[in-house]
Amino acid sequence: VQLQASGGGLVQAGGSLRLSCARSGRTLSTYATGWFRQAPGKEREFVAAVSWGGTATYYADSVKGRFTVSEDNAENTVYLQVNSLKPEDTGVYYCAARRNLYSRYSYDYDYWGQGTQVTVSS
Predict the structure, then answer these.
(1) Using only C-alpha atoms, what is the Rg of the chain?
(2) What does each C-alpha distance from 41 to 38, 71, 100, 116 come to in angstroms?
């Protein structure tokens, strides 16, 4: 399984971005996909996840109401729409995949993309 994250950039506070996670390799219909982020000097933290088939979504409390995760099976891509960005959202955003159930813990994920930088200026 290969994952390719993209869509990051530099935005002002209050702005929006759409991050993409293109998936390829094995059949991914039974894989959950998660988004994590890591700010400089901080540990990687859970942001959002979508269950396989896109039937359920999960969010960290800090992003609820601002971020939306979705899955496009036809494109084999998972999206993370990030709105109302704050400077504390700055970091490298990674997508990851694991079989079956989603998890909030990075160590549960087997496959990782290379990350895309999101920088929010105040």
Answers:
(1) 13
(2) 8, 31, 31, 17
Estimate to the nearest angstrom the gap between the alpha carbon of 112 and the chain centroid.
11
Backbone angles phi, psi at 10, to 5 degrees: -105, 125
The DSSP bridge pattern shows strands 91-99 and 31-38 to be antiparallel
The pair of three-digit structure tokens given for residue 40, joined into one six-digit string: 């400089």
* Beta pairing class for 67-72 and 77-82: antiparallel
Return phi, psi of residue 37, to 5°. Answer: -140, 155
Cβ neighbours of residue 79 closer than 8 Å, sequence gap 6 or more: 18, 19, 20, 21, 69, 70, 71, 72
Whether residue 52 contacts residue 102, with contact meaning beta carbons closer than 8 Å, is answered with no
pLDDT tens across the length of the chain (122 residues) = 899 999 999 999 999 999 999 998 766 668 899 999 999 999 999 999 999 888 899 999 999 999 999 998 888 899 999 999 999 999 999 999 998 889 999 999 999 999 999 999 99
